Protein 1
Amino acid sequence: MSRSNTSFGLQTSPKHPVSLKVNGDEHDLLIEPRKTLLAVLRDTIGLTGTKEGCSTGDCGACTVIVDGKAVTSCMVLGVTASGKEITTIEGLASEGELHPIQQAFIDTGGYQCGFCTPGFIMASKALVDENPNRTEEEFRFALGGNICRCTGYTKILEAVLQAAEEIHTNS
Amino acid sequence: MKSFEYFEPTTLAEASRLFAEEHAQLLAGGTDLVIGMKAYTETPQSVISLQKIQGLDTITSDSDGSITIGAMTKVRDVELSDDVQKHHTALAEGASEIGSIQIRNLATIGGNIAHASPAADTVAGLLVADARVDIASADGGRSVPINELFTGPGQTVLKPGEIITQFRLPSPASGSHYIKHKIREVMDLAFIGVASAVNVDNGTITDARIGLAAVAPTPIRATEAEDLLKGKEITSELLEQAGEAAAAATSPISDLRCSAEHRKEMVNVFTRRTLQLAIDRA
């Protein structure tokens, strides 16, 4: 089998055709296997709402929803996401209306610098979609994979609880 | 990350053939491998994804409580499985201790075991479940008991081309429990992990298994402590003796996380506690 030269990681390897459905839009791309889903979303497709924090899965800033599950997109190779449905922060608002979770973050002031906010909102959305009827303790524990370095956790939790209650009441 | 060739075989035979090549690495959930590649601690020339091989991600159970868990089953699905929670509680508890929900939605039980970290959170639960590890390879395959899989930190008996396909957990003990000794509630590595599983008949322990993680170069069973418990009436003295025997079986290291002495002492404490709760659940 012929091998590509991997010295210093400068050489590229064959690109793979990848079909991603992102926020309802189909994207047929040719991408290098070493590109993470996060890099594909941000650099190839241009959706920069998803943030890169630690790049090691510890901070949750890059959280997106893949086939209904919240995942840290910095740990996912883009090629492995082919054929899957991806929702990013850009896909939440519909027809000019913010998603209730987005609105709740604004209403409560659940953000400071805003860098962790897309990740928190996507992680919260997956939790609320799965079951909005959780206690504060359960939400606190379930959001443990998201870090806010401004340490604004109280307002973030308030926002999530407010949105969850609204969604639970309307469901 | 260094560049690599990417393969998505649809059969185990093809995956095994590709994996037998030099500098090949298997990709399951990617939560260890992708991070390793970013850090240049992993520099494979070919990466073989297992996700297109059908049938590796299911949990099936029999009426006697025996369970088969596919290697590509997400850790989050192990954690939330009713059957695992009911019959192999220590394993479900261990699965729930890994990373965050986002990571558990990616990470697989096969990856957690094949990575062979002595601190893996699913390993103590699999040890006390007496799990067998089914392995596929180009020339058929084999099955090894989980306590014979590991040979050192990051090292297993797996040969080039061998792929873990599933874990078979026989008829379960009646009660089990896992404790991870840690600082953070989530996103932490275990100082130590302890699982106990017991069968109890009328106040007497008829069978006991104790699995220990992060206290030796490989995960281990505390067999002397187990033997000491079998056939004995449950008393607090007995559990104390078992805790001491389990601690004596360990050879922990001191590292930046905690000292060897602390690990040893906590094995004693958590063996006692996991036994007590396993007995309460039995």
Note: The CA atoms of residues 36 and 77 of chain A lie 4 Å apart.
Protein 2
Amino acid sequence: MEPGEIHALLGENGAGKSTLMNVLYGLYQPDEGEILVDGQPLKLKGPSDAIAAGIGMVHQHFMLVPVFTVAENIMLGAEQVKGGLAGFLDRRRARREVAEVSERYNLRVDPDAVIEDLPVGIQQRVEIVKALTRDVDLLILDEPTAVLTPQETEELLTVMRSLKAAGKSIVFITHKLGEVKAIADRITVIRRGKTVGTASPEASRDELAALMVGRSVRLTVDKVPATPGRPVLEVSGLVVDDDRHIRAVDGVDLTVHAGEVLGVAGVQGNGQTELIEAIMGLRPTLAGTVTLDGQPVHGWSTKKVLRAGVGYVPEDRSVDGLVKEFSVAENLVLDIYDRPPFGKGLALKPDAIATSAKERIEQFDVRTSSAEAPVGTLSGGNQQKVIVARELSRPLKLFIAAQPTRGVDVGSIEFIHSRVIRERDVGTAVMVVSSELDEVIGLADRIAVMYRGRVIGIVGPDTPREEIGLLMAGITPDAAPAGGATAPGAAATDGGTAAPAAGGPANEDEA
Amino acid sequence: MTNPNPPSGSPDKEPATEPQAARTALGNTERAESATTPRRPAPDQKPSLGRLFLDNLWAANTFTVTLLSLVLAMIVGAVLMIVSDPEVLATYSYITARPADAFSASWTLVSEAYGNLFKGAVFDPDAVGFTAALSPISETLTYTAPLVFTGLSVALAFRGGLFNIGAQGQATMGVILAALAGFLIPLPAGLHLLVAVLAGALGGAIWGFIPGILKARTGAHEVINTIMLNYIAVYFLTWLIVQNGVQDPNRTDAISRPVDPSAQLPRLLGDNLRVHAGIILAVLATWAVAWLLNRSTLGFELRAVGANPDAARTAGISVTRTYVLVMVFAGVLAGLGGSNMVLGSTASALTPLVVAQIGFDGILVALLGRVKPWGVALAALLFGALQAGGNRMQSYSGISLELVTVLQALIVIFIAAPALVKAIFQLRAARAARLQTSLAKGW
């Protein structure tokens, strides 16, 4: 690493990127080899040694206390006391430090905001500020963009550039090619725990992807034009509240036909999650109707909706999609455990479950040590394949996939996309909700853009991305100037009307 | 802590399975090692199988930690015995002059006490005759049976993600309804027993249903509610005993009429030994809970809800229904445990303390048994043995019965803090955080 360099570490999920960085940060101990800082070998016993050596880390999952303010979180672990008296926290000084650092690097973090009220992108900046107040020279960002919206990603990249300008070095761990190309000075590709190559950002995306996966990868989705049939899912006038009883879906009308993929695009938090949860019977509908093949299904229990032939890949696989302590086999029957052949009456049929698990693992190329391994031990991409395998292994009328490839490596994305298209081609109505615009464009036959709980427009997949980006920011082509004034506040970003950076590097990768 | 067994060969090899560990633990480890080596077919491996086996035995697997916890608890218990005995303590005042005195006095005290514990719980070599020889086992099983039920009750709720502190209250309601059915309803033998047992189960079910439905409908935390229901049940029992028609007409103190003989669980080994059919019911219940948890759709739902309620809900499982069912089942089990206390040989009438501490001990048994059905049964057996042996220890060695309670508490503390046991014995890390996570789930 050079000072003032952004070094990207690229690799599939489970390639060993995070492990390597955890060693650097002193969380794990190396079995062999050594770490050199300024030419000196360094022995790290824990994160405090790493911080002392000027290494800071922003973890993939933030290490913040939700009910503390920004300033309190930043002092945590390095509490300053007033006048040397133990027990008296010097909050003012902490706040000043936060203000100073965020000023210097243009991070715009309010020291008094409470963490749980902040959007994910800002929380991440708090983590960065936290590292910076510890005077680090080397900052490790572990998959920082996995949880960010396109706008937030763009802002993060800006922050990284200003840090670089200030002479800080950054290790940027990711598996998104577009980001790497946009920002990295040097790229190291890791595969199965080994460095397989160093590339410059000029390398083409295909080259990088091939290096990562170890073979060539198709980055676009191959598909024939859709042959839409009868309408399968019809949503009309749907109104849904979110958990805080704030209107999240405000009169949505949608139709998904058999044999087509309807993509739902939009910046996260514009009602997409609540919309599909309402369709799945996970969230009460306040008004409007949902019909499946002409039959009203709103008010049905989730089990009844699933039984009616709906497959559902939830947005957050570790919370809603899988029971991590359960084995792969058990997770593969999580929503069909009580149907023949897996269950009869009160009894489970472990043999049938095991046999079917074996088949699914084979069919969907799930990389696991065995069907009995707890699913939590699998990499993100393979966990997602377990869910997709489960949902696609019964006859469906409607398949709803929310963020089907979030946090999933390139190889698995390709596989999951091809499965989605295959499902469409057998005549299932498919609805794909994603905040990755390229994923939506790549998969969808029609794209519905959601903004503030409404479908603001339905466009074809060949619509220019700029136009879709504008729609995502709430600007319809007809009302562009007027709509622009109200847009920025709601887009969950302070990026102003320039927000539709949807065409930005963050989105380019996964399609 | 340092690691005496560097993970040279295969650190990820499974820890020894429990039967293997048990086999070894019973005998000399060296011998077991040589006994095991030829038995296993040898794939090509770098470290010798025996070495691997020892490594695994010494790894922090469940059985090893449990066994070592027991050892640690007994060591602490020994210290307590010495400290609490004035005569032995006196020998320590001149320990520098005559250390042998202090050591031999301590040894005599401790070995005799633990000897009596063993004789009271397992087997007394001096016993003459069939009855006397079987008496310790009979006592142990008598104490074991109700603990199996309450332990299963807590364990089942635990697996469903609920912390059932209310086994005590559920057992109390169970004992009340079982006793009432036992002396108020005149029925022919056989049927009467069945009705009384079912009445006990019903009492527990009601007392489990209340916190279950409150949790499901209003989100009220089951820990608070079950604790409160414990109080209500205990004072309801105290009040009920002295009511007309319940209180024994020939007595002035708080004791109810005795349960009809037709409603009593039959004794298994003749009238002189207390062991009764409750232990058979307990084994059946263990089997039933094991089946329910691992081989039934209901158990699948229960475990899914316990491990990740969000994913369970998304998969179409009704979390609220599962919570209610879990608590009802837990109540049924605890209620059956309660019935054992009045339909068995422990007591035949209601008194304010008729259920003893079986509900609270059930929590310990469940934790000790790692919330697995057969583990719970074994843990209950251990607690039952300590209880039975403790009685003899008290009468023969003059060690108070409370020491047994202290021992039980110490065992559970060491179990609940596997890191402590691992640090003391420098065990190799393996399957470490299991119990903590299951413990944390309840809250």
Note: The domain at 137-390 of chain B is CATH 1.10.3470 (ABC transporter involved in vitamin B12 uptake, BtuC).
Protein 3
Amino acid sequence: MSQFPDSTLAEQNLQMSKKSVLELRNVNIFYSDNQAVNDVSFNIRRNKITAIIGPSGCGKSTLLRSLNRMNDFVDGARVEGELIFADENLYGSGVDAVEVRRRIGMVFQKPNPFPKSIYNNISWGPLINGYKDSTDELVERSLKQAALWEEVKDRLHESALNLSGGQQQRLCIARALAMEPEVLLMDEPCSALDPISTARIEDLLFELKSSYTIVIVTHNMQQAARISDYTAFMEMGDLIEFNVTKKIFTRPAMKRTEEYVTGRFG
Amino acid sequence: MPLTTEQESRNLLKRHRKARFFALFCAAITWSSVVLLAVLLYQVSIEGFRWLDWQFISSFPSRFPERAGIKSALVGTIWLISLVALISIPVGVSTALYLEEFAGKGKISKIIEVNIANLAGVPSIVYGILGLAIFVRFFALERSLISGALTMSLLILPVIIIASREAIKTVPQGIRNAAYSLGATKWQTTWAHVLPASFPGIMTGVILALSRAIGETAPLIMIGAMTFVAFLPEGPMDSFTAMPIQIYNWVSRPQEEFHQLAAAGIIVLLAVLLIMNATAIFIRNRTERRMK
């Protein structure tokens, strides 16, 4: 037994937190005849941040978009293998892609607020999905979660396009959070932002971890090292290595990983 | 050391001169068409202005120029344009939405696309023949307002479809992605985001198309709009006349007074056109502002 009095609880927590939300099993992704992702398998753990890193064109964004079926809109895109979420294959025949996207939210590379008011940006998603309670509360809660409330609370009904780039991106995060997704996918969410806005979003991700599972694709290795718990390193569509972030950045098992994270290529 | 050598500065001077010449050239072209239009308008107003009074607007056509008016043609045109808008906007925008958002990007779409572009260039009289054969004869709608409106709608549909498609294309993919990622269906995404975002562009196309429809004569003559109408149409099945036809009719009479009446008719036609476009532009700008 452990020396800690509440060991069983701690162990339970560990068990819980280790539990996977999303399991990728032999995932292959094709664009027409080109294979973009080759036989990738790993698990995404609950309430952790999983980073996917790798050089440009390695298939990391493609893989991310397959996690909430955003690839469905790309002509000729095809996903094989299994993505297990809530005991079901996301690409199974009985699964509705709309329902998948409702439960697995996404934040994109370029901030893409709707050309509507800040308030409507947040409330639209829940409303079309049948949300019946007061949206005032929901808007406030979501904006607070995204650390944007203080900056915009006096101009909720102004256009979202008047916000700065960093604020727009946090609005997009708030918009995704309003749906209370089980998993939040982020496709290089800071690549279009300045360092200060980037730092704010990184702080935010740290706070969100307690209630959400986050998968983030990033070009920035320092960012991956700073914020993530697990890291997947991809190259040419292959998953080279998947491990605890600390391991990947200090004692990687593969030589390619070491070369990449130490900046010798890519 | 000077900033530029003599050789370079001479070269630069030449380039600047070229740029100035080009700007001047463009300005000259622009102003020549503006002047031409102004002369035309001046001519028309000089001729028609003294006939333009309430009596002219509120009277039916007559054999006597001093008693003749444009009432039936004006009401006919308003009827016609309203019906054309009612038919062509929903059909045109739906087609554009289908082609852009729902149909695949396969061969058939490509064929439809090329065909629509070609249809935009077909002479209006051909649409008149088509309208006569299909609406007037085959569907037995007679020489009615609805026949005219349907024919006119066919004529302007390609313009509305092409303009709407271009407007829909300019909606950033990011907006669609954002909506989809919130669990929206294709319909919800299209209705709540794509359509409003492309609305200003669609309106521009609609304005252009309806402006063309309001001045078209040939298809209406072809389907047999009447030239002498001493009553007002009360429904879409009534026979009618329209302003361009009334003007055409007056111009082709030998008496000088009728030519002046035609000029007055043109002024009224232009006024209606201006009011229509101003309203549309006002609506468009208001939505554009709301989006910003």
Note: Residues 21-114+183-261 of chain A form a domain with the Rossmann fold fold (CATH 3.40.50.300).
